């Protein structure tokens, strides 16, 4: 059934995209909104690994770059977007050099195409904001819809079992028969990625405006609570921890009403955990293994650090982690049920993975790409240029930054696009409390 469902969904998603592109007269805004609505399906693999392992989003990005090549042209100026554009070019150059100078200089073009594809989306998103002041609110509705789809899919998975899924196989840590633990990955292959995606999207439902109807405000808050529960169901401790920390920081800068809402969320989640609600993964029981988990991760981190000491500046090459492990550290593997070996393709830490593959220059560039939108938003909020609504997007990124410490998740386009959207919402946040990107003193 799954073997038929996945190709069918891929064809439907591709048909929807091309239909919007053609029947909406090749207009940019409907196409970008369509991409956002289709986020749950963008990571579906279209070609096998020996043909590049391209995913659905890769094809969409190439089509967009070819059709909207004029909109891709960038106007330079003294602005945060120009600075970020320089960082993007720098990251692509560093990535290319890291591959060429490595001992595994293969698939250079394929890797760079995949890396560059996300920046096609970011450029066109900003272009839409400058052309239409209402695009930002339309994009927010689209992202919320994608998150709600992921939320509903996960709850259906809880109701009907893990056979209700989008992948023929799930990650090894999804089921632990010895401890009778189940972690629900939802639309993802790995439950940790599912937790990060849900946590990233959760704060969007706290972006409530005075103009919103009362029933809409209640609906958003209920959805936020359900997403917190779904993150718990995914069994991702790092995502849940990031969500709690970000929510605490967010509530400090908000009204008393928001603090009360935060307390309600905390009470609901804790009560569900303590009462042992049958569908929830036994996270409290998993805390008994925290020391063993830490020691295992620490061993991977130590060996990853030893690799960086040999390749400090340029790393071992983008996408070369698993190849390096197979050749130099072959003891880093998991033995699967069928007796085959699965070699690690990451050190259970997103920052270390980037540091190992791209070196210090690459990691610094990536951190600046994330950090500059946050710092710019904090500054604009501090001087009163923008309202506190921007804190929703800052909190979302903080949630992911904390969770990223335990697992490299941006291999999945859905999470990568969600991160990009949160940063884009910060960059294009309207000044003077006006719902218009045109009020920003930025040259796009």
From TrEMBL:
Keyword hit for Ligase: yes
UniProt superkingdom: Bacteria
O-antigen ligase-related domain span: 223-365
Membrane topology summary: Multi-pass membrane protein
Molecular function terms from GO: ligase activity
Keywords: Ligase, Membrane, Transmembrane, Transmembrane helix
InterPro entries membership: O-antigen_ligase-rel_domated (IPR007016), WaaL-like (IPR051533)
Transmembrane segments: 6-23, 52-69, 76-102, 146-167, 187-208, 220-253, 259-280, 354-375, 390-408
Ligase found in the keyword field: yes
GO cellular component terms given for this protein: membrane
Cellular localisation: Membrane
Protein name stated in the entry: O-antigen ligase family protein
Organism: Dyadobacter fanqingshengii
Lineage: Bacteria, Pseudomonadati, Bacteroidota, Cytophagia, Cytophagales
